[in-house]
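Batch manifest, entry 17 of 40.
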Amino acid sequence: MIRLMWVNTQEWFRLKFFQIVLFLAFLFVCFSQLLGSLSFTEQQRLVVDFGLAGIEIALVFIACFFSTHSLAKEIERKTILVLLARPIPRWKILVGYFGSLAILNFIAAVVLAVTLYFFITSPNLMFSINYLLAIAVIYLKSLVIGSIGLLISVIARPMFAFVLSITVWLMSYSIIEVQFFMEKAQIENSKEIFTVLSAIFPQFYKFNWKSYGFLKSLINPSDLGWAFLHSFGWILASMYLASLLFRKKEIV
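Output type: structure tokens
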């Protein structure tokens, strides 16, 4: 499993998609500095808000692409048959793919986070700690979406799984807006619909901490603990379901 993880990481790292997304995200972070220089009063806010948003978008796109295409690529090239011929449980193959994704996103997160931090002027200790927590939470969100993408890729084609994974990410921030719309439109059973949406989509809107205001404020430990438990719970649940489906999947 570790060898599979290492081989996939090396192969994916050399792909142009990863390099292009990382380069575009780097340019976006640099653009946030240029945008912030146009404002005298909100410079740091613009730099941080745009920079953190760019980091999350980049990590999510990397997670969605590799999680939804890794299994399909191995099946198409028939290399998956070599792995299945060995006495390796199928769930270990999925864990190997997920581990490679985690390594790639960690590399991207470190590069982009260091770049953005370089543009922040005179950060104090609390700001720096909150900044690291914000990056960690963004990284975890990308892994959640990656695990969901891997789950969808077991039963769907790569491009459909990619679009569906992006949709899940967008919905995870939009649930509260959907609830507001249903209440304003006076839709029946809006509370029940909101409960269902909260159950089938991650609740990223509850810990949307990629903002300058969060970095300047004190963190509630219970909110931090809930964010990490919520993320790990979704990762474990998605990987468990993916392993069950992959175990029954016929590969020819």
